[in-house]
Design brief:
Blueprint (H helix, E strand, L loop, with lengths): L1 E6 L7 H17 L3 E7 L15 E4 L9 H12 L3 H8 L1 H7 L4 E7 L11 H14 L2 E7 L8 H8 L3 E4 L2 H10 L5 E2 L23 E4 L14 H18 L3 E4 L9 H11 L5 E3 L7 H9 L3 E4 L2 H9 L4 E5 L2 H11 L6 E3 L8 H11 L1 H20 L7
Parallel strand pairs: 1-2, 1-4, 2-3, 4-5, 5-6, 6-7, 8-9, 8-11, 9-10, 11-12, 12-13
Helix pairs in contact: 2-3, 5-6, 8-13
Amino acid sequence: MKTFLVMGNAVVYNKGSEALVRGVSYICKNFAENAYVIVSSSEPNFSADINLPYVDEYVKKYSFKSKKSPKSIVAAVFAKILRMNKIATKIRYDGLLKAAKKADFIIITAGDDFDIRPDINFDGNRKLYQRLKEQNNAKIVIYGCSMSAENINDSIVRCFNEADIVTARDSISLKNLTDAGVKDVKYYPDPALVIEKEECPLPQGWKEGKMFGLNLSNLILRSKYGGDKEKVLKSYHTLINYIINETDMNVVLIPHVMNNADMSVLSLLYEKYKDSDRVLLVENERLGASELKYIISKCEVYVGARTHSTIAAYSTCVPTLVIGYSVKSKGLATDIFGTDKNYVIPIHTIDNDNVVVEGAKWLIENKDAIRSRLEKTMPDYIEKAKSAAELLR
């Protein structure tokens, strides 16, 4: 039997993180003989109650609930004042370290955690990986990275080179990591591609074959990603007005990160248009990644800001336009279509009300050809994602 410890991040409320963990767990279970999968997350409310498929055991990443707790303060004293990092690591990650003792592979679902936080010193991560390896010589896998060249610093390179295996989920990130000096990076598409959709009730007012799916993230409204909040919101209003007034489609607003993250902005859009009876809102924040994938799969076209919501669309062959805030959007679109032109609108280019609606018009006009292309290329792309199992033997 091989044991896999999969380290996720915010698995309970971030459905992209959940999709990553589901995908990795699926790959481990289906391609490694007698696999035993343990999943870890940093959320205080993380537990077996979330009941993910292909998962045998759950463990919290941290041994304390907040940075203000006594254990956290003691760990900080050992690390920063006494310079006793091994003891600090043991205090911080006691449960995780115990679970890791029986692991053959420790898989960090990287996503874009490194890319959107390049200002953080990742030597702490490196020391954790060292401690995990010391216990039983398990292989460390940093899985599914997206990295902009300008965000790769020495701390990140050192951290990545502590791992035994590093994979990039798009070819642009593969080049960026390799050029920066990360050793022997492999390319495999995002593991979230492989998860199954799970049927669930559709919002009241759903028009089969006539739904325009729309996601907006509170993340991209932050100036640090190069967007202008007012211009982005106005561009979404212009898009919804166009769909209502110029097409026979209804709009469905779909969150993909819960705890009122996406809902905080989607609800603003919904309040303005709810009386039109043409705009629907997916309000159930208890839906899982597979259920959201089902809802997205039923859309005729999709415009999304959350990466894993667009991966759900791509993998179910829904013509998709991405509102992108990092290299991953461009990289994924380029790998799938050969170009990001017409498939990605970088957030910093939304400088007037019509940018998004013009992109959506092109998407609608070309939706049949796009869907046909996805139907031809997506099976091989998903198989490539599954083939990452060859690293886990």
